[in-house]
Structure formats: structure tokens, C-alpha cells
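Action item from last week, closing it out:
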Amino acid sequence: MNFLEAFYLALIQGLTEFLPISSSAHLILLSEYLGSNQNLFYDVSLHLGTLFAVCIYFKNDLKQMLYSFTKDRSSANNQLLVQLVLSSLPTLILGFILVDLIDSHLRTSSIIAITTILFGMVLFIATFKKPEKLNMNDITLRDAFIIGLAQSLSLIPGTSRSGITISTGLFLGLDNKTASKFSFLMAIPTIGAIAGYQLFSVDINYLIKYSQMNILGVFVSFIVAYITIDLFIKFINKIGFLPFIIYRIALGLVLFSVII
């Protein structure tokens, strides 16, 4: 992998991690197109970049959660923190158990074509649900756990972590902005755990040897992810999810035409 390929991968990671179109699918497809293999050591950099982006963007929410936790250990007064931890557990547990199966059998263009269209339609159907919960305080522990269970489906490439969690949030009555914000906050423990696992799995010598490439990956994915989150949160109530749904279905159909 050269620096240009590394730049493209970081750009795609930052752009797609928080949009409901599946970052894993786009990274797999881009790697196949470029004829390069995704390197675990570089994946660490990409995940760290997007993790920094979401943490900094929602720094005030994180500060409030930390302040509340240190001042009051009551779960009732730390509801959002409990919800985020609870919602991340299914994905982390299943991901740890199924990682070899996923890497060996599910990272294919045919799987991505199916899931891209299927979960694009799920998001389309979810948009018809009338919103009843218009802010984060309306989300219950039950809602958080259900969204967390749905998030585990994102282990399948093409599903989209943000796509399936936003869809589930909409089905549960959350409005566009609330479902999106909760989905993005859920990414913090999930991406953090993935990055931590990868960091301990990779040879540290590779990170040092390719330090310039890793810095590029962190920087580009961070900048692009931060801008993407900001624009998405600001405009999602205006633009809705239809552009992403159309894109998913179009991408799936193109993949099927290539496969066939």
C-alpha cells in the first residue's frame, strides 16, 4: 500500500463511518479496486481518526457524562452513560466470537450487494414511522438495548453500523436527529473497543515503521469524519435519509451487475 492508496482509504473511512452507507463495505470494495490488502496496522489509524472525531465533536456530552459519573454513581442519574455501555455489549461480544467467521466468509462483494440493498430498504421503511421521542432524555434502557442488538448486525459488511442503529431508533419512535446523535455516541465505546483490540493485536514495530502513513490515516480520517458528522447532524432533518437510501440501492445493483 502506497501513500496515495492510504489517503483514499482514510478519506473513505472518514466519509462513510458515520453515514448510513457502510464504511466496511466501501473499504473492502476500494481495496479490491486498488488491488491492495487492508492492513491491520493501518486499520488502527483509521479507527483512531474517526474515534477522535466523534469524541471531540461530542466533547460537551462526554464532559457532562464524566462529571455526572464522578459526582453521582446512581445509574438513574447517569442514564446516557449506562445506555451507551449497554448498547455496545452485543456487538463487542459477538464480534469477538465471530471475527474469524466474518473475515473468512462475509467480506465479499456478493454479501455486500445483498446487505447494501436489504438494509437500505430497512432504512426506507423506518422513515415512515412517526417520531414520538424528540430528545435524548426520551430514550429508555429498553430502547438502548434493542438498538445495541441491532448494531450487532453491522458486523456483516454492507449493513452499516450507523444505518442499522439509526433505522432501529426510527422504528422505536426517535426523530431523525435524536436517532443519529445516539448512533454517533454509540460509536465511541464500539470504535474505541475495536481500535483497542486492533492495537493490541498488531505488531507495534509496524506502527513505528509506517509512522508517516499512520499519521496520514489518523489526520485525514479525523478531519473528514468531523466534517461529515457536523454536516449530517445539522442537515439531517432537512435532507432526510432518501439520498442515502437511493445510493445504497444503486450501489447494490451495480455490484450485482458486476458479479453477474
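Closing note: The mean pLDDT is 90.
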